[in-house]
Write a structure and sequence with these properties.
single chain; 109 residues; alpha+beta; 30s Ribosomal Protein S19, Chain A; 2 domains; three-stranded mixed sheet; 3 strands; 28% helix; elongated
Length: 109
């Protein structure tokens, strides 16, 4: 749900202090846990290390990200793969292709 207009966007004050007086690109990654903080135009060019619950994911802020939240660019869940019989068959074919390529490279050497 959107935040009311009279309150304005939520931007973490500590985050603004960290980028105050710095130029984009210098200083490396700025670590933050403020996933709910809105990306403002002042943040463009900076790299933020957004915490996803386990580690800090580096997020380089570009102009298209303004108005979105920092947490949108640091996924909290790791996608492993879709399961099922069809997926196993595809993986088996991929392994066979790798083995065949390795044998061909070994034979040509």
């Amino acid at each position: 749900m959107a935040r009311s207009l009279y309150k304005g966007p939520y931007v973490d004050e500590k985050l603004l202090k960290k980028i105050a007086g710095k130029k984009p690109g210098e200083g490396g990654v700025i670590k933050t846990w403020a996933r709910a903080s809105m990306i403002s135009p002042e943040m463009v060019g900076f790299t933020f290390g957004v915490h996803n619950g386990k580690e800090h994911t580096p997020v380089l802020v570009v102009e298209e990200m303004v108005g979105h939240r920092l947490g949108e660019f640091s996924p909290t869940k790791k996608f492993y793969r879709h399961g099922g019989k069809m997926q196993k068959e595809l993986e088996q074919k991929k392994k066979e292709a790798e083995i065949a390529a390795a044998k061909a490279a070994k034979a040509s050497s």
